[in-house]
Write a structure and sequence with these properties.
Elements: H1 7-10, H2 16-30, E1 37-38, H3 50-63, H4 79-90, E2 102-105, H5 108-114, E3 125-129, H6 133-142, E4 148-149, E5 154-155, E6 158-162, E7 180-184, H7 196-209, E8 212-216, E9 242-247, H8 249-252, E10 260-263, E11 269-270, E12 273-274, H9 275-286, H10 292-301, H11 304-330, E13 335-337, E14 343-347, H12 354-365, E15 367-368, E16 370-371, E17 382-386, H13 391-403
Parallel strand pairs: 1-15, 3-6, 3-7, 7-8, 8-9
Antiparallel strand pairs: 2-10, 4-5, 9-10, 11-12, 13-14, 14-17, 16-17
Helix pairs in contact: 3-10, 4-10, 5-6, 11-13
Bound molecules: D-malate.
The site of D-malate has 6 residues, from loops.
Amino acid sequence: MFKVNDNYQKLPGSYLFSTIAKKVNAYSAANPQKSIIRLGIGDVTQPIAPSIIAAMHSAVDEMGNAATFHGYAPDLGYEFLRSAIAKNDYVARGCDISADEIFVSDGAKSDSGNIQEIFSVDNKIAVCDPVYPVYVDSNVMAGRTGTYDPKTEMWSDVIYMPCTMENNFVPEFPKETPDIIYLCLPNNPTGTTITKSQLQEWVDYANKNGAVIIYDAAYEAYISEDDVAHSIYECEGAKTCAIELRSFSKNAGFTGVRLGFTVVPKELKCGDVSLHAMWARRHGTKFNGAPYIVQRAGEAVYSDAGKAELKQQVAYYMNNAKTIKEGLKDAGYTVFGGVNAPYIWLKTPEQMTSWEFFDYLLENANVVGTPGSGFGPSGEGYFRLTAFGSYENTVTALERIKKL
Ligand code: MLT
């Protein structure tokens, strides 16, 4: 008789954004006349930039011609894309990362869920609280998190680093030393971040304690302040303690196209064992490469035209962030984020729980957001709105919220 992976049975409820989608669909079915504005999941709304579309069209044409057709992509990514990434995202920022330390993938969500596979099940993870749910859930599936306490909504073997308004959403070094530290900066969900010198302290801490940092930099394109690092490799010593995850979803609108990459420096080792070699082995075995057409689209992100178009796109979303932040402030809300990230994090009014406010906003303003408690117990009493909607919808949503 076969047995299932019991760890899956430990997962409480469904994936956060699936739960929200179900709730919104039920409300919409019961109220078909209502026009609902979705500022919940961080999904982009602006079309793919013209120069990227042109690159995709041309790659599609290549696929229709025997002389230029491409079959399986190299499992670690095409050289043209890995070189463009190394040059533009790393060397240009003074980071000593080479093309062969970059592993192209179908997105940062898969990489952030899969990366834990190369670590022992005995490792203890530390996460910010609130946190992007994939980090914790993928470790639950692997059997690394102990037991779940429904009262505290915490796992016995996970180290939580609360990030609340009391500590300016800056994680503090935990009392117990973790083996694996997940950091998402700029942060999803709080929309806040830390300075480069604060990040340097984390790098020093990890090197001193023999820990590895899984650094999710999916939102780096939204950084507007000078003292914030775009990559953890801007910090000294990061190559011996950090893996960086990047996405094309948020900077280039690839949520439906799917492309990302992971950087595993060759210097990152556990004793004599190279994590780079392990991830290459894993990637080669389980992944057949992102599609050629998509990797050509990724290359176009780094063209002069692509860069200029995407700068405008990021500015468009950040203008939404400003609109939300200022609108909420005018309406008397306490708000955070939205300066270096496309998320606004607000205190729920009148002591409402995060889910109470979710229902209140859905029913009274027909606006969907994300309850902070869905990201972890310290998210209770907070709520997230995304700046990834259209400008028109963002303005309408704020008008409705102000009328409440
Ligand atoms: C979010 O809303 O937190 C993100 O869109 C989720 C993701 O990027 O997978």
